[in-house]
Amino acid sequence: MKIGIMGGTFDPIHIGHLLLGQFAYENFNLDEIWYLPNGNPPHKVTDETGPALHHRIDMVELATEDVPYFKVNLYEATAEEHSYTYSTMREFNRMYPEDEFYFILGADSLFSFEKWKYFREIFPTCTILAAMRDDKDADSMWSQIRYLRARYNARIDLLQAPLVEISSTTIRRRAERGLSLRYMVPDCVADYITKHQLYRTPSLSSDTADSKE
Fold this sequence. Notes:
Blueprint: E1 2-8, H1 15-27, E2 32-37, H2 50-64, E3 70-72, H3 85-95, E4 100-106, H4 107-111, E5 127-132, H5 138-152, E6 156-160, H6 168-176, H7 187-195, H8 202-211
Parallel strand pairs: 1-2, 1-4, 2-3, 4-5, 5-6
């Protein structure tokens, strides 16, 4: 099978993540897209208590459950140590030798790729799909792709997908203030955030509860 890999903290997952998966699936004739919630990311500070991780996984599962070719893989979520792309992809190649992997990343990551830990070890394990944002010049994207191909014998293709100016940080801030998350996350994720009062400070959650009595 041809499998696309979408890794991230997904705190929470939003429509930008889902659109990237959909366009990669269609443009490169993939069989599945695997969403990998990262349980212990080395580059981000996250609340990794058991309930917090459980909520992030639940939201990814809710967001993808109606799409038969979207799958949730918990390999990184259950790892006890920091999860690095090179080690995850190396292990996937070992576990699924008959499959072909496509690692999906954003334009900004393409230009900072040489700063990733053991980045050279990633290239033999997968084809990289670099999503081009509207504010990135296509010529500069192709220039970076050609550079990485020539220097590291990397397999890299350009993934053209719509630019969605939204971030999980923005969603968390809106949820903290009790603002609508409509059009930013699937309705099922918005309902889940509201039901479990995610991202609300204790004082705000308490005030909200008091106001309903």
